[in-house]
Write a structure and sequence with these properties.
two-stranded antiparallel ribbon; 339 residues; Phe-tRNA_ligase_II_N; ATP-binding; 19% strand; BirA Bifunctional Protein, domain 2; elongated; 2 domains; 9 strands; alpha+beta
């Protein structure tokens, strides 16, 4: 039995000394000291040893186990230290190298255009007012002189929640809320997201943004409207920008007009950007319809005003010469980093 124990111990010590990795030490531990290991099998065969020799054999087994465990632990620590040293060499940090810059966010082209528009109008004394995107049909249509049978209320144009509630199709509804407050005069712009049932293509989206403006005061004329929008165009597109008004129809304004600006690429001479006309359509405007004033509790004989509305995406597309509106919503960093 002593010779068997010595053979097991010598063989295990040799295997431990020859091992080159921690995984091999684990294999040796299991094969010698495990439940089915060689030393354990010796203990299980103690019944074959004479009773008077059992204490001595048991002591020899325990000493062998202790010696092997100490040797295994010593070898494991040596391996761990070596691995740690190699890891430190590989992961050495040179503190003199410049640090990696964190990725910084960037303003969206729509945000840049909106901030510029807001800066222009607040500089003229306007207030920026926001309102709900989910709106009553009354504020979105009827209070703006758009009756129940108007084509704009068709389900092909509008997202209805129910018969009385819609996703707003224009931010003009915010103007109605402000007029109903009765705090006159009013000088405001209402930026925000609007919804229309449009197919997605290069120039249309079911969700887009508008900036609508409203002025209500005494003795306001169309000349005030023209002067305000001419100044807005010059600050947005350049001092040499000219404006042109074409008669149009909007239910909530009378008279109404579409405003064009001279092409800021060719100076009005005609180019691919303005399709050879020298002019670019930019917004709709007009004098507030008297019936709209009446429905909001304002006396049209005492107060008059003008309103206008511009598509924020249209401004961004024109200002930054973007050909496809869908690029604004795809969140491609390669595109957004250009602004």
């Amino acid at each position: 039995m002593q010779e068997k124990l010595k053979a097991i111990l010598d063989q295990a010590v040799a295997q431990i000394n020859e091992s080159q990795e921690i995984e091999r030490l684990n294999e040796i531990r299991v094969s010698v000291l495990g439940k089915k290991g060689e030393l354990t099998s010796v203990l299980k065969s103690m019944k074959e040893v004479a009773p008077e020799d059992r204490p001595k054999v048991g002591q020899m087994v325990n000493e062998a186990r202790t010696q092997l465990e100490e040797l295994l632990e010593e070898k494991r620590v040596a391996f761990a230290k070596k691995l740690r040293e190699e890891q430190i060499k590989k992961e050495t940090i040179d503190v003199t190298l410049p640090a990696k810059k964190p990725a910084m966010g960037h303003r969206h082209p729509n945000t840049i255009a909106l901030e510029e528009i807001e800066t222009i109008f607040t500089g003229m004394g306007y207030e920026v007012v926001e309102g709900p995107e989910v709106e009553y049909d009354y504020y979105n249509f009827e209070a703006l002189n758009i009756p129940a049978n108007h084509p704009a209320k068709d389900e092909q144009d509008t997202f209805y929640i129910n018969s009385n509630i819609v996703l707003r199709t224009q931010t003009s509804s915010v103007q109605v809320h402000e007029m109903e407050k009765g705090k006159l005069p009013i000088r405001m712009i209402a930026p925000g997201r609007v919804f229309r049932s449009d197919e997605v293509d290069a120039t249309h989206s079911p969700s887009f943004h508008q900036v609508e403006g409203l002025v209500i005061d005494k003795n306001i004329t169309f000349a005030d409207l023209k002067g305000t929008l001419a100044e807005f165009a010059k600050q947005l597109f350049g001092e040499d920008t000219k404006v042109k008004f074409r008669p149009h129809h909007f239910p909530f304004t009378e008279p109404s007009a579409e405003m064009d600006v001279s092409c800021f690429k060719c100076g009005g001479k005609g180019c691919r950007f303005c399709k050879g006309s020298g002019w670019i359509e930019i917004l709709g405007c007009g004098m507030v319809h008297p019936h709209v004033l009446e429905m909001s509790g304002i006396d049209p004989n005492e107060y008059v005003g003008f309103a206008f509305g511009v598509g924020l995406e249209r401004v961004a597309l024109l200002k930054y010469e973007i050909d496809d509106m869908r690029l604004l919503y795809e969140n491609d960093e390669r595109f957004l980093r250009q602004f």
